[in-house]
Each structure stands twice: as C-alpha cells, then as structure tokens.
Amino acid sequence: MKTYKIPESVLVVIYTSERDVLLIERADNPGFWQSVTGSRATQEETLVETAIREVGEETGIRVIPALSGSALPDNVILQENLHDWHMTNRYEIYPAWRHRFAPGVTMNTEHVFGLCVPKDIPVRLEPREHLQYAWLDWLDAADRCFSASNAEAILQLSQRG
C-alpha cells in the first residue's frame, strides 16, 4: 500500500539577528531556492515537531528544549528561538509533485515558523534534497525564492525583529 504525503506542511524561515536568511537550493529542481519546508510525517505529529524535524533533516541544525548548565554543540539551537508566526498559506500543489499525495489532493496548507540562529551555525545539507545553501540579506533572499509565499514570509522579518 502506497503511503501518501499529508497535505499540511511547515515553512521555516531560518535567519540571524542581522536579518540574513538561509536559503537552500532544491536538488530535484536546480535553481529553485527556498527556506526549509516539509509535510507532517503523521497526523499525530504537531506542527512544532514537524518544524524541528524538517530543520534537522534539511540543514543539520538541531533544535532542542532548554538545557541547564550545558554548553551547546555548534549545530544546536534552543527551541525558544523557534516561533510560530501564526501565518497560514493555502496553495495549489505543483502538478509535478501531486503524485506524492493521495489521488484528488491538489491543495496544501502551509504553516510559517521563524528560527533565529547565530550567523556561524554550521549547515549540513541532505544531498538528496538540496544542492547548496546561501546566507542572503532578507530582501535578496525574498527575491531569490521561487515561492511567493516563501518570499512573503521572509519579508515579514521587517516586522519581527
């Protein structure tokens, strides 16, 4: 039995306090730059859990709850830096990717999160998913995104910090 993707996803804008934004280039569509995105793995997985999982899978950045008295490894960021921006986008799934969803599913609901990280945090891409990454000024990052909802989320940084 084929397992289909759930048509509910997260978009996580990873940025620094200077409003530099991390973009990653899709391996299955070279030239398509985006923030971290991904669908819920199960109906039981919360959106925060989805965001944490996708950030880890796509960038190697681990988001964890607060620790007391411990120094953090260089690729770890505390969960207090992950914020639900309470923005939701609903969009048509590209025809080329619809085979991943149940027959008849054409729309996806995307929930937007922001994750503030230090500029020097190491990024380790999953090579099957992404070719390269770039840190860009937030306006340049918005211009480079292939997705209008991703660009609009990045532009929200002017109001968020």
UniProtKB/TrEMBL annotation:
<keyword id="KW-0378">Hydrolase</keyword>
<protein>
    <submittedName>
        <fullName>Dihydroneopterin triphosphate diphosphatase</fullName>
        <ecNumber>3.6.1.67</ecNumber>
    </submittedName>
</protein>
<dbReference type="InterPro" id="IPR015797">
    <property type="entry name" value="NUDIX_hydrolase-like_dom_sf"/>
</dbReference>
<feature type="domain" description="Nudix hydrolase">
    <location>
        <begin position="3"/>
        <end position="158"/>
    </location>
</feature>
<dbReference type="Pfam" id="PF00293">
    <property type="entry name" value="NUDIX"/>
</dbReference>
<dbReference type="InterPro" id="IPR000086">
    <property type="entry name" value="NUDIX_hydrolase_dom"/>
</dbReference>
<dbReference type="GO" id="GO:0019177">
    <property type="term" value="F:dihydroneopterin triphosphate pyrophosphohydrolase activity"/>
</dbReference>
